[in-house]
Amino acid sequence: MLLHHDDARPALIDARTGAVETYAELHRDVEAVKSVLGADHVLVFLFADNSVTTVLRYLGCVEHGHPVALLDAELDPDLAVRLLEHYQPEIVIQPPDRAAAPRDGYVETAHGLWRRDRPRHQVHRDLAVLLTTSGSTGSPRFVRLSHTNISANAEAIAESLSLTRAERAITSLPLHYSYGMSVLHSHLIAGASVVVGKADLFSPAFWESLGELGVTSMAGVPLTFHTLQRVGFAEWDLPRLTTLTQAGGRLEDRLVRYFGDLMRERGGRFYVMYGQTEAAPRMSCLDPDRLPDKLGSVGTALAGGELFVRAGDDGPARPGEVGTVCYRGPNVMMGYAENRADLALGDTTGDVLDTGDLGFIDEDGYLFVTGRTKRIAKLSGVRVSLDEIEAMLADHGPARVVALSGEQLGIYCTWGDDQHFAAVRRELCRVLKVPPRSLRFVHVDALPVLPNGKPDYRALAERGLEPTGRCT
Asked: Does this model's pTM top 0.90?
């Protein structure tokens, strides 16, 4: 599906050792993974780190028809067990350095690969990859992506970014994150190469790998570019790094302009992109040449896709009119899965996705995203469900969570003091894998409700972080 090449050009490069895996070797090793997995079309849970071993096992699953759920190798153990019990995968794969039994009933058939011999549940033949819908909260809800979804999006991204065989990307994002996954897909389908290693912007080894191994392209979320500006990226000598791509949430116009100008001065390109996990995952791209006059836009739809905006009456919005952003294309997911039985379903979306975003399309066809309609937020590139965070806080007492500006959540509580809030924040940051600045706790005397008794989230959002009580 993704491996169209079979020659001596580099495909994967180990960032730690510099070892090169050619496309010919990649085909051989992926075929070897097939013999370990077996020929059955069974569900695989892959707890992924950014290692060549994990990439090989992932590609072995995808190329040989084993639907695979990509999960964070650092997922909280209790949440991981909950997912295993909920979906009952036939095979569980863990990173080699964390190869412990996932739970009773599994037998290790290769290092880090566990299988259970139980009656198998039907899984749809088109299903390729399952991705979580809300970061690291252990939600049982998955996005169901088909082989067509993945290959169509990889080809469209490669075309939009003008990827050639000379490109060399680096895994600057986790593999289990849809954006990180798509970097791997798009470069392999173009016959380019990928440097595989731990995604740690604060590690000197990461930047040494980027320079020494000739990386030409790096992807990032808003936090990535905030960090790069803060640590003096403009002064670094990285002559081969000619492409930066940004997605995973809105980046402030000032930083888009800053990095756009910087890359242009270096003879390179800065791409702003827009996507969602449900679209495998990218939907649009802003041509760097249009960045000055379309600042704030996420561009136009990728090849084969269509972006459109629905007005309040579900009819088409006029140019410049704000409405619900929708997308149509071959990369739109098959649908969601809430349980194991849902994995047998075919396509339930009809190739159309309601993104849950608000925005408008200008007269030139460029999309501008202005807000959200659903209770989902992105913090430092991590997608989180506000309702699930409320459920996680329920043992402490009533809480309401709203998304505020600047990639922050306001967490409003009728309980707690500064010490209590600090302890709860630490635990939430650990589970969600977001920085502490993303979570602001506010003590209130009462949580506002609508006349129908439902939470009044709008009142809290308008209130922001200027409470009558304490804020920490």
From this structure: no
